[in-house]
Structures are given as structure tokens and as C-alpha cells.
């Protein structure tokens, strides 16, 4: 069945081309051509030429049917559902009189009902798809046709057309940028739709075309582009432009891709290269997959089993028939001769088999599928209607876009989340700062719920109204004229690459390349240091109301390795000063030694900020003498002009001057999380859902967000970072992480079990184990550069059993390029086993496709339900490949929403979607299925038993009308009501007790075992329902003496008993009796009796005497007390055991939901207000600093302009981009706090382990930093495999120099690693370098971990010997020694 | 146990906020309606299986079932029933020769008589049944082999019976009335009952043959074609069923009102049995006006006109005499079943009570583990 369901996809290529050819002549041929396209040739302004190649047009079609094809295609699809085909087959069987044991309508009525309901649903779905397609296809764009601009619909744009784009327009197809209104053929685009990055990107046209300028020249442009065929690589394009006998190379830098938005550029012209389905956007969106839930698959399996069961019963009864016909039937022929074609008992048995297949077909309930659909539809509506998932800011309600997945929401185990726009709002706000050892921005009064927002306007007319700051002491300090504070903000107003635009006096708009920078410059602006404008050589500011112009001497631009940027300016007085801002790790090393004391204080502040999840930057300046400047600028010029190794030489030059700086302070920027994100993540992880963040952002950003949304915490045992560039190194790192986990958890266990000795021993073993690895790792890592001397060791068999019971909290951070290796076939399992042992996984720098691959990987290896949530077009593939895709309908367009199954406006609604709606859906669906199978078995199996008493003749027990109506009228509504409305515990409780979610993940409520229990119960009921009336009625007579054992009385009695028993059963199953349930249950019983009396009435009989044989039966049967006594008896026998069993289950082994329910009841009885309602806190009445102290560990995460790109500084100094148009800055929304969640987390941890709180002592030792920690090349490793071999390129500092420092720093770190490991790991995270292969200093920290192992273990055993009480104290000891 | 419906004030507050946010109503708020139904806050009864509800339920069921069972058992025991097998299987049985020498073609009916003794007198009305065993009246092909239109007096169905009646649809070119296997196999033994009084004379016991069929069958379902006029004319052009000796309009020579399709013996037969062993009401012995029992104890003779062969398929024929109580005939099963189920419920109640008190975990830990 599962196999068949996939068929439509495979078949569609056959069906669709036909359909397409009708609509678009080009498309049909395209599908065949596509496979052979090896290169693409496009000639501008030459439609005839381009049409030869029959490229796809720009029309996008995601719909499945049109009016003509709907009926055949839809029916074709529906009959691929095995159940439907099966019923069609039954229908045909029933037309054979010798077989037919039922009249045709018993099958055709339900079948028609089912088919039409499904068809209506499909039609509606497709209608909406048509609508959205049309909307997109009918967007207008300006096409240059025969020298004039004409408005054309998107769908009519052809490859080779030149189209004009205006500011803020969506790019209609993949274009080659020809010219732009901006100088140098530059234009700016926002690629949020495409890759989720919200920062602006620059594109530049080839110089020859940019000179063409306006449309008149472009109309005669006839260049030809030869390029690669359509593909899904977003960051790559390679082609050649042939024009006027010259060749020009084309790269991705010249391309505008569909889905991007043009920004800050008045207009530009582009040549369409790829259109419609060939665009990179569409190529990346992946194939639409039919998603089915695990319940669906289980259901299909079960239906197959039931088919098998049905065949078995058929065979048994057929054999019975053969025996009976031989022994009895053949002799009974004087009264009942065989039907004409039957001449022997075997043939009779054969026919009887089919007859039984017909009458027993109701065990495979045809209404099952349609009922399931109806229930899911109901659940979807409840999601759409939920007010608590309505975002009033953006006026968006949650939407269930797919109606078939609801119950799977109750089974999610893995969540894959995008970062930007999903977890964060992508708004940066200047939150705190430390100036000259004084910290500002801390809420002055923690008790005041809403600190007053500072009003800057009286002080500064140029202030940004949206800027929020709450600490008035800083403003005071500025007003007083504190020189440090002034210098601090001056730096912020000068040292950046922001562009400003002043439309009218005082109405400043900043255009920042990254939101971080914007936030800093805006902060300076509000505190009186307003950046007004810049030219390539000057920066004009207004300082405390006084205009000042600085001469900009140099911009020492940012890059990933430097992690800092500087400007060198000459102030009006003529003094030259260098202002630098950068990651604290980098900057603090380059300070003048006299800063020691200030640095210590600032360091502490930085730690505090980092612990609050803020992105920190350190600020410093340096006075440069005229001579110094002269010499340096000379060397800089040399480096700049150098042809080879320009970058390296520049970096060296920068390094030269950025020394001996004076520390000014530090800033802390909050990457504003969406409302309620940490709470949601905490609740979800309490519900045992693992959350992976997959982001295109850089590692530091991602890790930072991980901390601020409490995915990563300082309580974590260790955070592993995988960022190797080669297969070997990735493998090595993964293996090391695993070993480390095993080691740590073993030592933890050992600690638990055996106390001190065991602990020490385990540690020793771990050590020995690792030393072997170290050798490997050195070799393997070296292999990155040189050839490997020895083949890499075969991957160890993934020690899954070991990995499964890893205790302790680990986190994994993996880089995109490492992920590419980790996703390769031979490393998959290693990666999965490592990653899944971690509580949190963060993948950064991943491409859209990799996101999907990660999801697929987990789907493949873990058999767990996955959910992907994202908001940008870069999340589409992930959303599509996960079991459930959720789109955030935010600012970043609607691509993700369109591809998603569910959409809503804020991440925090996810907890309600999963824990409330998902849980209920799952519960309801399971209860529904259990009951549904039960009632059908109870109903059908009676025929089986009756077979033994009617000569296996396939005589039905019931009236045929009863058989027809049983499933669709008498028993459908109560179970539907239960399936739609049932609740075991109210929504608030399921948020309060996230553990309630677990039964869904473990699939406890409906699985094969539950199914067999239901079936067994159904069969038991059928036995009772048959044999009780059998025993009673065979001898009973009416009070008039007429025997009751006639067939019709028996049928009515059994049917009535059945309806009553299943009604009582549904009453027992229903846990939430709303009015609707009452109406349906009582209504069904009522309708049964009404319909029965109507069908048995004389009126109907008089009209159709041949159709209504049962005339008068209801009346004469139901008037008999014996009949009612029989029904009561049967009901009691059926229900009493169930009741007893359920009572025992609830009484002795209550599930959590039972307990919650019970407690609820008790509370209601006591009329006591609910004491522990966390629900209130959920909404975030927010205590500002609660629990913050706990989180404040030694970890420090610095962030510097994370979304920053290099290259802008050059652009500024070159003056190329000095004409800028409008730009809207993100508004700074009000702050909110979320740290109460720490308490929650701790509550959870206390069960497993007590996190050591040695954080105070563990702050990073400044002594080490001052000694300039040498960069080690093994940038990736936290574990520090190679202690003494810097493997790749060296950065100059001899390894020997760091020995002492290593010892100190790592003694400390190592001490933490056992007892206070979280801190150590967090530090490691902070300090670990980015993705660069050139080592940078933080690596040293990590690497030294290994170095000091011996020292550590020496110390440890000493500690053990000296009877110190336990590991935490060891940690203390060691850190004190440090 | 009514669940409290949650206070919706909070949401209301949100609502007003949202609408004001939407720019003085310019933008229509898409906020879902705040109805109890849409927010899944319908007031609901949430029953829980607690000891307080389940255990009493068991005791109540027990306490209701046991007395009913005893009542049923007693009244069933008061019913007198007498059954005699007259198939004639054994060599010694009086009908052996009739059973052995049966042939469809013989014109002379075979007669036999069976003697029996009633130990106890039968009071009130006595019902006389014939019982058949191993006779599959519930076989699918048998059950459907009839034409209700024809039996309802439909003229067109009379002349062209339904296909369901095959192979008993036509004979000798004429449609069979009544058609089908059921009618064809009509039970046609004649039973007569004689009481042998103390001085050896046998007195015929009057057997009433009216009122043995369902009222609806007699008055609605079965009707003669063309009313109850001249049946011979009405059934002209039809043939009698193959096994029948007489046509349908001559089924009861003694009562012209009891002929054709509305012959009560025929109607009773046409009401097919649910099980292969069944009994059908044959005659009623009316209670005598005097205080003497309807059937005093003593010797009786059953005279049988043996027309109906059952030995070929190993069938059995019985004659049953029975009295009736308020709940019908003798039915020991129901009473015993009720007593058993009631006792089990009661017993279960006790066991569960003990288990509940001994092992209950909830009272100790009212807190919910999280």
C-alpha cells in the first residue's frame, strides 16, 4: 500500500506533459529536452533564436489538475488507494448472483460517499494552488521589447528577454545583470527569500554592459551568453558572454536570482538566463513529496493484515463449506438443490469463499479513510481557529495548510529550526555597555516590572525615536561630559561601514550592512554622537550638537580571521587616532599592558553579558603619531599593491598598527529573540523533543543564539565543535567527540556507582583510550595538507549501544563544510550516532540543500518524526523533506509558508501546536482508530460465527440495510465526535506537564499491540453478541407461544445488542462529553431505532415488497421482554470485563494523563484555585533577572558584526557606492526577558545530575590571555587531540612559548572538564575559531585540554588520595591553585 | 464532575487590543472568533473511572442481575414442556417403516402413531410445536429463495416469479405459486393428539390452527392475489410446488378462509428459522373453561400422517408440548446466565475493592511526577 501511494509521482511525468503542452507550447518539449541540456545559450533580444532551444518559460505550475483532467486523474489517484480498488473489486464480485451475499448498494453507497468526499477535498486544495500560481504568474514586469518597455506578466517572460527592475521589486527570473542606475553597474539585493540571509548583497554587472546604460542602448544589445545548465547551486554561476567578438567571464557576482528583492537601487536591467522551473529558486525547492503520517503507514500495514485475516477467515469458511456441502448439503438437495453451475462441493466452496469475502469485507472499513480525513480536517480547523496562536501584531492566525498530518504533530521527536527570522527577529538592539570599568544598561531596579524608557529628544533632536535604553546613568554620564564615555560613543560613530541618508534635516536613515552595526551607530546617535554622512575621505558627525568632520585615513576592514575592524581618522585638531572594535578574544590581546586592571573588570562585564546571551564587542583606541602613520601608510600601500598574497600582507600590515591599544569598554547587543523562544525551547525539550538549529549564519552567531535561547547552557557537560575541512579531520573530530562522551558519561556513571575509586579509574581508562586516538588525529589532521602516509583507520563500528545511553548533556556545533563530509554515505552513521547523543545540535553555514539532507538523514536513521520550521525560501527544502514542515509567516516573504504544512507568525506557537493540538490530535486519532477497528470486528465477526450454523452459506446475520447503514449512520457520528472533540487533559495542563507528550513519541496509544487488543476485544464482543442470543433465543418463545428463533427476530436482536454495546463502549471511551457528543451518541441510538422501525414498517413494504422483507420484525421483536433481557445480558458480558480492566489500569498503573485528570477532578471538587499553574508564567510576566545568576558561568561569547561581510570598507574608500537611495532600518522593538527559563531547566537537571556551580572561580584567567595565547591550527577541536604538533600553517608564535600558559589555562579548563565541564566547554566554544584553516588563538585553549591531561590526572589522583569529598571540590581546589 | 469552562477574559482583552491595532478597523482583524466551540472550550463532562464510580456500578449490576436471574429461573422451571421425537430412526420406533419406505411418488399417506405419557398436568394454554433438526432453513440460498411480491398477492409476480426462486420457479412451463425452495419444502406432516383416559377411550384433543402466525405476516405480508375471492380462479395458470400434493388454494380443506398464501401453517413455515435446529408453532390447545387442566396427566397418543422425509439428510422431527409464562417458553439459560453474570459482577466488585485498598498508589502521592 505504501508502495502504491508513491505511484502518482512516478506517473505524473506521463500525465503532466500532456497537460502542459496544452497550456504552454514550450513546456511539453522541455521535459524531454531537459535531460540533454548540457549548456545553455541565450542571445539577448532575440526570441526566435532562443526559441530554438525550447527553454522553459517563466510560468510556474504547482497545481495538479485542471478542469478537464480533474475527474480522470483524481479517480485514477483515488483508485491507487488499495482500499478503494478493493471496494471496486467487491462491487464487481457482488454483481455475480452465485456469489452475491449482499445487495450491490451495501458497497456502492459507502464507496461513492468516500470517493466524492475525497474528490471535493482534492479539488479545493488544487483550487488554492491554482490561485497562488496565478497570483505569481500574473505579477507584472517590464520587458524590453523592440526598444520599448512593455508590461508583461511574469509568465510571459522568456529566456533572452531584457527586463527592467525597479527598487523593492522581486526579481522575476534568474537574470544576468546588464546595467544599473547606480554607479559602476552596482546594485543591491536582498536574498532573504532565497537563502535567508537578510543582509544586503552587492551585485555588479560586467563593465562593458554597465556602460550601455539605458534602454535605448540595451535594445540593440545582442550579446550571447553560454553558461551552465539549470542547477540548484545558489552561490555558483559560471558562463561566458560573447559580445562584439569578445569574451567576458560571468560569475555569480553578475547574477540576480529569482526570489531576490532589489534594494537601494533605482532600477536595473537584466537578461533572463533561467526562467520558471529552471530558476535556482525552483530548482532548490525540491520535489513535492506526498507526506503521510506514521499512523497512516501503520494503518496501511494493519489494513493489509486485516486483508490477510479476511482471506484466512474466507478460507476457513470455504473449507467448512466444502465439508458441509459434502456431508450435509449434498443430502439436503431434495429441499435445497445446488445452483445450476455448481456441480460439486469444491466449486461451491470456491464460490463461498468469495461470498464470505464480500460479507466480511466490513472488517476493512471503507469509511476508515474518509473518517480519518474528516477528523484531521476538524483538527486543522481547530488549529486555524486557535486564538492563542494568533499574532495580533501581524494579524495572522495559525494555518494548517495540510490537513493530513495533524496527529503526527503529537509524535515529533526532532525539530529542525532555522535561526534568522524563526528564533530571532533579526533585530539587534544595543542593550548594555561597559565604559571604563563601569557597566551601564543593567536594570536599576529589578523589582520594577517595566523600567522607564529613556527619552532622548530633549537632549538630542537627532535621536532615533525607536531606540530603547533604560539606564539613565549612562545618559547622565554623557551629559556630564565624561571623557571616556564620549570617546566610547565617538568610536561607535566613526568606526563602522554604515551609510547614512538624510532626506531632510535631522531625518537620518542608516543603511547598515549588518544589523549589529546599525544598532551600534544608532546607539551612538542617540547618545549625542550622530553620524551624519561620509565621503570616501571624510566622516561628518554631530558631537553633542556640534558638527565635526573627521578625515578618514584608512579603514582596516573586518574579516573572519581578524574579527575586528578599525578606522584611522584625523580629527579637526589634526591628531590621528585609530579606533578599533572587535571580538574581545582578539582585541584584549592587543591592548597596552597598562590596561590590565581595566581589562579584568571589562572581562567580567563581558562574561556577564555573554551569559545573558548578548553579543559582545570590545572597543579600543590608539593614538597614532604622525611619523608612525607615515611609515605605516607606506607599508600599507605596498601591501595593497602587492599582487601575490595581498590579503596576507594586508593582514600583516593591519596587525602591525593594531597594537598597544587603550581599552575603552565593551558593548553588548541583543540579537532579539522572538517572543517566548527560550520558554518554548525549554518546554519542548522537557517534552523530550530534540531541537537542531540549522542556519546559514556563521558559527559564532549560531552559537550565540544557541545560548540566548537556552539551547546551549553553561550547565552542559561539553559542547563539541566540528569544523574540519577534510573527510579525515571531520571523521576524527566526530570520533573524538564520541569518545569523549563515552568517557565522560562512563566516568559520571562510575562516579555514581563506585564513588571515588571508580571515578578515578574511569578517568584513567578514558585517558589511555584517548592517547591512542591522539596519534591518529595528528596523522589524520596532517593528511589535510599532505598526503596521508598511512591509510585512514577504518571507521570503528558505530558503538550505538554505547551511544544510546550517554548520560550528561552534550551539544554539537558543526560547520557547513564539515557537514558536507559528515553527510557522505560512509560517515552518516557516525554523524548520526554522535549528533543524536547530544541534547542540542547546531549546524551553521549550511546550504538549503544540506538542511534537507540533515532532515533526511535523521528520518532515515532514527525512524523518528521530524519537524522543520523556518521562514525563508532557504528553508523550503528542509520544510518539504521533514515529516512536518512549519512556516513562519514573518517578514521574509511567503516561500516557506507556501511550502509548509503549518504556518503561523511566531516560533512560540510551536509549543501550542505540538503540545496541545498535536497531542490532542494524536490522542484522538488513536482512540478513534482503536474504537473503529473494534466496532467493525464486533460487527463483522458475528457473520463468521454464524457461518458455522448456516452451512457456511455466507448468510448474513443482519438485515442488509443494517449492514449498509451501520458504518455510515449508526456508529459513525459518535466516534467522529470523539475523534474531533475528545480531550484527556485540558490544554493548560498539557503545557504545564510537557511529559504528557511522551506517549506520542513512543507511539504508545496506537501500535500493533494496541491494535491486537482492540481486535481481540472486538472478536470477544462478536462472540458474545452471537452466542448469547443464540443460547437464549433458540428455545425462547413469545408470550403468544410463537418461537423467537426465527431468522428475522434473531437479526433484530443481534443488531440491537450490537448497536447498544458499541454505544456503551464509545461512551466509555469518550473522555470529554460535550453537548455534541451527547447529541451524537444519543442521536445515533435514536436514529437506529427510528430507521429500523421505518424500514420494518408496513408502508415501505407495501411499496417495495421485495426489498423490505423484515416487515413487522422490529415491532414484534422489541416488544418481547426476553429480547431486552438478552440485550442487557449481552451488554453486561461485553462491558463488565472492559470496565474492570480499565479501572484496574487506571487504579494501579495510572498514566500521567490519568493522574493529571484525577488531580483536576479533585481540585474541582475542592473548589480550590489551581495552585501550580505555570500557565500564567508562560505568558511571560517575566521576572527580569530571575535565574540569571545561575547561568552566569565562565563562558563568554563574543560577537562582532556577525552578518558582516568583508569588502565593504574598500567600497567606501573607493567611493563607488556613495549614492544611496532609501533604506528602512529595522525598528527596535521593546525588550523582553526570558531568563526565568533557567530555573525550569535546572529543575529538570536536578533529576539527572547536579550542575556544579563553580562558575565564579572559573572565569578565564587573564594571565593567560595577556601572555598572548598562540594560535594553534587545529581550530576545530575542543578536545585537543594534538597537544604539541601545530599541524597546518603556523602563525608565527613558537609552540614552546605557550607551554606555561597552556598549563595554567588548561589546568583550569581541565579541572572544569570533569566537575565543571560546562564552563570549560563553553569557553572552548567561545574561543574556538571560525571556519578558517589558518589557526587562530582560541584553538590553543581547546588544544591545551589534551596537553595537561597528565597534570590533571596527577592532580586528580592526588585529590582522591587526600580524601577530598568529591569531584566538585576537586574543581575548586584546582581552580584555587590556578 | 462538570469541567469548568475557562474564563475567557484574557482573550477578550487581546481581542480589543488587536482590533485597535488594526488601524481603526481599517484592516479587518483575522483573529479567530472567541467561541467556546472554536477554542475547544465547550463545557464538558469528563467522567473518570474512579473507585467511587466503578465499584458501586459493579455492586449495582450484581444486585440487579441476581434477582432477575432468580426470577427467570423460577418461572422457567414452572413451565412444563414435553418433547417427543417421532422421526422413526430406531427399528423399534413406530414411524420407522414410514420413514424407511418414504417415496415422493406414493399417493397413499403413511400413518403411524406414537404413545406417550404426561407425568404432570399442563395448565392454561398449551402450545404444540413441531421441531426439526439439522434442517438448514437459514442457508443463504434457501433464505433468499422466495418471492415476497408474489406472496403479497402481486399478480405479475404470480405469473412471473422472481429469479430468486430458481430452480423452483416454474414447473411444466407454468409458474409455481408459491415459488421457491422454502415454499417447496413446506412441512406437511399432520399431527393429531388423543388423550387416553382412565377407561381406555381415546378422546381427540381440539387443536386450534388459527393465531399461530405473526399478526403482520398474516395481515400485511401475505395476501392472496385478488383478495380472498375464488382462489381457484386466482391461482389459475400457476402450478403447485413440486413437492406439494395439493395446490396452495387447497391447503386447508376444512377452512376456506385459511387457504392460499394466508394459510397459517404456510406462513409459519415461510418465517425461516435462524438456526438449523428449530421449532415452529403447530397448534394451540386452548385452556378449558372448567378448572380441569388443559392436558391432564396421563396417556396420550400422537397420530402422525408421515409425509415429510428428513432421514435422507439425517434430520429429526419432534413434537413439543409446552406451556407459557410471562417471559415465553421454557428457557433455563437466561436465568442461569443472569445469576452467573450478577454474581461475577458482585465478586469482581469485591475483588476490585480489595485491590484498590491494598495497592492504590494515588492516595499516597497526590502530586504529579513531572
TrEMBL record, chain B:
Keywords linked to the UniProt accession: Cell membrane, Cytoplasmic vesicle, Disulfide bond, Glycoprotein, Golgi apparatus, Lipid transport, Membrane, Transmembrane, Transmembrane helix, Transport
Gene Ontology annotations for the cellular component aspect, listed alphabetically: apical plasma membrane; endoplasmic reticulum; Golgi apparatus; transport vesicle membrane
Biased composition (Polar residues): 150-162
GO biological process: phospholipid translocation
Pfam families: CDC50
Membrane-crossing residue ranges in chain numbering: 48-74, 333-355
Region (Disordered): 1-31, 146-166
Bilayer topology term: Multi-pass membrane protein
Compartmental location: Apical cell membrane; Cytoplasmic vesicle, Secretory vesicle membrane; Golgi apparatus; Membrane
Similarity comment: family membership: Belongs to the CDC50/LEM3 family.
Protein name: Cell cycle control protein
Organism expressing this protein natively: Sparus aurata (Gilthead sea bream)
